[in-house]
Write a structure and sequence with these properties.
CATH topology of the largest domain: Lipoxygenase-1
Distance between the termini: 36 Å
Number of helices: 29
CATH superfamily of the largest domain: sav2460 like domains
Shape: globular
Strand order of the largest sheet: 9-21-20-11-18-16-15
Radius of gyration: 28 Å
Largest sheet: 7 strands, antiparallel
Structural class: alpha+beta
Number of strands: 26
């Protein structure tokens, strides 16, 4: 079982896990027949093997090869139902609104016996002369499938993805890197870490820097009865609150109950019966968030708070921002009762100070000084907390001036993680631009346009650009100092040109899970063929029920015109939809596709195409939904008998929705038609259909990504700081950074861990 878990982890790093040492590999051994057969199966799924991995597989047992094959088939979705609603859907069925209206009238008036036609298993009567029912795998009126596909196409892909060898040493290196990451983990990294925590013990001497990562570790320690070890990771009451809320909601960020309840109601506001559904959803969320803890948990938390190595006034101040939540937590955890017991004197003092509010807050003092324009006091206090200084740096520059603010910030910048400095450099240009709004992504999903700081109006364009230049210069100098402090024996470096097109996506944390790759948001995928096939699969492991997910795309045309390909418009210039499915079959899920023709899009003058998926019938996107796109130089088949059009070897990028998702819609890519490139995006939004997707927000996100430092530029900084010469060929370089490497966020995070 552990080997299958580790195989899934290795696949995310374009590798296969084998339980062996590299020293034991015979590189001169002849490839065995089972390995040749195994290689052929992988090629059908779009993978090829490195020379080292092929030789290593010669020493693997046959059952290991079988297990890896089964795991890859499972990860690539080869065992799922990929049959859409329409057979041979590349040839339109010709259905129209009138077909739906006539069918609705016949069924609503119960005219089945009077009108010729066919009654389907779902109970709907399809009048003769409306839908060509021989072309459908289910009911064309209600979207209920009756037939499923028991196969997928294989081996049509024109580009193979090379897999390398991962040994125990490589897996543990990934484990340590994730634990020590200086940047917040995205959903893929988080699931990887949770998997590794279930397989391995915590390594000794590892420093865990991110509070969110601490929560995953604490959960594992507590589950194994190691409460005392977990207590050492709890530095402040906020850490305790974050852990308790993580257990309750599955989110490592603390989102207040009222926000989650309002969001649950909002997910239904645009649907039929919105008031009733929204009320039911909010009531369900209230029940989910009810605070009920057993005695063991109550005593554990009481011990954690009692044993903290900070004063009661510091602890109370730390609790103040979430005071309302703490009042309820204290009651639910019976902390008042434990505070009266012997040995819990520190807890008693903390609760006394907290309830009497006998403490001052640091933020309150800063705000008071800011109101009185006391620059020296504000900046002096901000230097005490460099992280908060970084978060309000831009606003402080506008209020108190560039020179004084940056001079003070430079004194403490060495105490900040590189990710925060990079985030400042990435966002400075947008913040100080003349754009009236900026794009932000709240924790609960979606995107929000924030109005610009009013103080910007007091500065000229030249002054604002000077501020941007000063921030970027400060960041570069700081990063050069950090890289220069690292020892290296290398003299030369090779940087793949594609890395200059991949932004270092700090601050845009991915909430989807990537099982076959780890692309940074903003990565550009070149289109090789003339057709791009979007796919959506949902419902795996669920019983047959009504669950309507929709795959859609929006095409931006000249003169600000747009066309859409969705359930309500199955065919438009350059795009064809496979039909709207609104129910799922038993356990195997169902699928929708959209075929994009690049030549037709070019002929129509299309600028770009936005890819989206939406939850139409339920609150949020299904947690087992898979979405992505296929591309190949070779033609990709569509079955005339079942409509199956999925081929794992053609998959260019694929993501899975995580269980913690609370978004109703997701923009997952944008095709730049002229450049023939697909930009991987992840922009959640809260609407039921693509019509609620704000094109302006998509454009702002693209602009935001373009303004960020690229992986290539970050590596150039490293080369300059360490005195490395950048060379043009792989063979002549001591350090090599290729495009495939750049797709790995964990490796990029290691550059920011200094």
């Amino acid at each position: 079982m552990n080997n299958q878990k580790l195989t899934r982890v290795a696949l995310r790093y374009r590798a296969l896990y084998l339980d062996m040492n590299r020293e034991d590999i015979d590189m001169s051994s002849e490839v065995t027949v089972p390995v040749l057969a195994f290689t052929a199966r992988l090629k059908e799924n779009g993978f090829t093997l490195s020379e080292e991995l092929i030789r290593a597989l010669n020493g693997a047992k046959t059952d290991v090869l079988v297990s890896i094959t089964e795991t890859i088939n499972d990860v690539m979705g080869c065992n799922l139902n990929w049959a859409p609603l329409v057979k041979g859907w590349d040839v339109p069925t010709g259905e129209s609104y009138f077909d739906h209206l006539i069918t609705l009238f016949v069924n609503a008036c119960d005219l089945k016996d009077e009108v010729d036609g066919t009654t389907l298993p779902c109970g709907h009567h399809i009048p003769e002369g409306t839908f060509p029912i021989e072309r459908y795998n289910g009911c064309p009126f209600c979207g209920t499938p009756f037939e499923t596909g028991d196969f997928v196409y294989k081996g049509q892909g024109s580009k193979l993805k090379e897999l390398r060898l991962f040994t125990e040493e490589d897996i543990k290196r990934v484990y340590t890197t994730l634990l020590m990451s200086a940047t917040p983990l995205d959903a893929t990294q988080r699931e990887t870490l949770e998997t590794l925590l279930s397989v391995y013990d915590l390594p000794d001497g590892v420093s865990i820097n991110m509070k969110e990562t601490v929560m995953l570790v604490v959960k594992t320690l507590v589950a194994n009865g190691r409460d005392d070890e977990a207590a050492k990771l709890m530095k402040t009451p906020t850490d305790v609150l974050r852990y308790l809320w993580f257990l309750k909601t599955g989110n490592v960020q603390v989102v207040e109950p009222k926000t989650l309840i309002a969001h649950a109601r909002k997910l239904y506001y645009h649907m039929w019966g919105a008031l009733d559904r929204g009320a039911d959803a909010s009531e369900e969320m209230k029940k989910k968030l009810q605070l009920k803890y057993d005695r063991k948990t109550c005593r554990m938390v009481a011990k954690w708070l009692n044993g903290m190595n900070i004063s009661s006034h510091q602890a109370a101040e730390n609790m103040n921002p979430k005071r309302g939540m703490w009042v309820r937590m204290i009651r639910a955890l019976r902390l008042g009762e434990y505070s009266r017991k012997s040995g819990f004197e520190n807890l008693a003092e903390l609760l006394d100070v907290f309830y009497k509010q006998e403490y001052d807050t640091w933020q309150g003092k800063v705000d008071d000084a800011r109101i009185h324009n006391d620059a020296d006091t504000v900046i002096g206090m901000l230097k005490e907390r460099p992280g908060l200084f970084a978060r309000c740096l831009f606003a402080t520059m506008l209020r108190f001036g560039k020179e004084k603010t940056l001079s003070a910030f430079n004194d403490v910048s060495h105490k900040l993680p590189a990710r925060l400095l990079l985030a400042l450099g990435n966002t400075a240009e947008l913040y100080f631009s003349d754009c009236p709004t900026r794009l932000a992504r709240p924790i609960i999903g979606g995107s929000v346009q924030i109005p610009a700081n009013k103080l910007l109006a007091l500065y000229s364009t030249e002054e604002k650009m000077d501020m941007v230049a000063a921030i970027n210069e400060l960041f570069k100098l700081s990063m050069e100092r950090r890289f220069a402090s690292l020892q290296t024996d290398s003299k030369t470096m090779y940087i793949d040109k594609y890395l200059y097109g991949i932004p270092v996506s700090v601050g845009d944390r991915s909430t989807t899970i990537q099982d076959t790759s780890c692309a940074l948001m903003g990565t550009r995928f070149p289109v090789e063929g003339d057709n791009i096939r979007l796919f959506l699969q949902w419902g795996e492991g669920l019983h047959a029920q009504h669950m309507d997910m929709d795959l859609s795309c929006r095409i931006a045309l000249p003169n600000n015109k747009v066309s859409e390909c969705a359930y309500y418009c199955l065919e438009t210039k350059g795009a064809k939809h496979s039909g709207d499915i609104r129910s799922i079959p038993e356990m195997v899920g169902t699928a929708e596709y959209i075929e994009l023709s690049v030549p037709q899009l070019i002929q129509a003058g299309a600028r770009y195409v936005t890819f989206t998926c939406n939850a139409y019938s339920i609150g949020a996107l299904s947690p087992n939904l898979v979405v992505g796109w296929m591309d190949s130089k070779h033609p990709m088949k569509i079955s005339e008998n079942s409509g199956v059009a999925y081929d794992p070897s053609c998959v260019q990028h694929m993501v899975r929705i995580s269980e913690s998702n609370i978004s109703k819609g997701l923009v997952f890519g944008v095709l730049d038609v002229e450049k023939r490139e697909i930009v991987w995006l992840e922009m959640p939004f809260t609407n039921q259909t693509i019509k609620g997707c704000d094109s302006r927000s998509v454009e702002m996100l693209l602009k935001k990504l373009e303004s960020k430092m690229s992986v290539g530029e970050l590596l150039e900084l490293k080369a300059v700081a360490q005195g490395l010469s950048i060379v043009e060929t792989l063979e002549s370089a001591d350090e090599v950074y290729t495009y495939e490497w750049g797709l790995n966020p964990a490796e990029v995070s290691s550059l920011l861990s200094i």
